[in-house]
Amino acid sequence: MNIETKELSKIYGIGESRIIALNKANIKINGNDFISIMGPSGSGKSTLLHLLSGLDKQTSGSLTYDGRDIYSFTDRQLSAFRRQKIGFIFQQFNLLPVLTAKENIYMPLLLDKQKPDEDYLKQLANLLGIDDRLTHLPHELSGGQQQRVAIARALIMKPDIIFADEPTGNLDSRSSNEVMNLLYNIWSSMKKTIVLITHDSRIAKTANRQFVIEDGILSEVTV
Ligand code: ADP
Ligand code: ADP
């Protein structure tokens, strides 16, 4: 899918406490892109990610997916769209602590009233190197393993796009490298679009297109 924003802006607050969190962002994301967005804390990364994924609505400007304005969807249409087309990966993994790795991975399917897909689960577990961890609870796994489970969960619905919000933020450098290698493989071999948010320039370099955001102003880095 192609994602395009035009002059996309988000303003929080009014009067003196008014903050332009995102200032007229223009970005065209093609289906075959691996994009990184780098910026310091408070620069507008989360705001941009929330707007791009339809978790939040803009103050002005537009966003389209293959020409469709997803902000015009009803809440129900939008959550179905997100569930089916977008996979999310977070800094804190966000696994449910009482469920096994396998149950966590299947959760999006259950929420969408779909049947578990054993073959696809096996394929993902193999790709991510967690075959022998599927019956474990999150607290029995290392950080890197938890993130790999979370990546499998993000892929189980076969989304077109993965949004990754500081996916290595809680990992040591070895696990970070492993996770970045996996994301790179998922991009190149599974043909997913990836949008990665990070404050780490080393991590950002894995992407084929790099953007920086500073004080809400987004710009592409030409490399
Ligand atoms: P980052 O993810 O890069 O840390 P954010 O997008 O969270 O940046 O924040 C950008 C700016 O918008 C910051 O100044 C932040 O304090 C402000 N901000 C973010 N969310 C809200 C909100 N819900 N209400 C008010 N201000 C907000
Ligand atoms: P991140 O680590 O992703 O940058 P933040 O600490 O910036 O997260 O913000 C976490 C959440 O809190 C964001 O999703 C944002 O909506 C909200 N938030 C951030 N800054 C503010 C603020 N100044 N006022 C209210 N909510 C905020």
Could you walk me through the main structural features you see in this protein, from its secondary elements to its overall organization?
The mean pLDDT is 96. The strands form 2 sheets. The protein has a 6-stranded mixed beta sheet, sandwiched between helices. It has a 4-stranded antiparallel beta sheet with strand order 2-1-4-5, with helices on one face. A hairpin with a 6-residue loop joins strand 1 and strand 2. It has 7 helices and 10 strands. It is globular and about 55 Å long. The chain has a single domain (32-55, 85-221), classed as Rossmann fold (3-Layer(aba) Sandwich). The chain has helices spanning 45-52, 75-85, 101-111, 118-128, 143-155, 173-190, 201-204, and strands spanning 3-12, 19-29, 34-38, 60-65, 68-69, 86-89, 161-165, 193-198, 209-214, 217-221. It is of the alpha/beta class and 223 residues long. The protein binds adenosine-5'-diphosphate (2 copies). One adenosine-5'-diphosphate (ADP) is lined by residues 12-13, 19, 21, 39, 41-47. It holds the Pfam family ABC_tran. Keywords: ATP-binding, Nucleotide-binding, Transport. Residues 3-223 form the ABC transporter domain.
